[in-house]
Design brief:
Strand content: 15-25%
Number of helices: 4
Strand order of the largest sheet: 1-2-3
Distance between the termini: 34 Å
Oligomer: single chain
Largest sheet: 3 strands, antiparallel
């Protein structure tokens, strides 16, 4: 995975298949903020922590963006552009 930030856009390029046509994904606004909050494959960030962090950046309550953020995270996971935990370890133990 490679990415570049230009102005307010995050361009993400999946480099796993160099034989495929490489086409960057352009992520703007909250989409770019979410992608940048994902962490790394070795240290992924929990979905709830991502939502909380993005809500804080935009001055919103996490509950107000959870559904839309979860849908976008699912899209990223489905496209192979994101790895993250689905819940916090604290939430799992409750």
């Amino acid at each position: 995975m490679a990415f570049e930030i230009l102005d307010d856009t995050v361009f993400v390029l999946d480099l796993r298949d160099m034989n495929a046509g490489l086409s960057p994904q352009a992520l703007q606004g909250a989409s770019g903020t979410i992608w940048l909050a994902l962490g790394t494959p070795d240290a992924p960030i929990a979905e709830s922590d991502i939502v909380r962090g993005v809500a804080q950046v935009y001055g919103m309550e996490p509950a107000d963006i959870t559904e839309q953020a979860a849908a976008f995270l699912y899209e990223l996971k489905s496209a192979g552009l994101a790895l993250m935990l689905s819940v916090n370890s604290k939430e799992r133990s409750q």
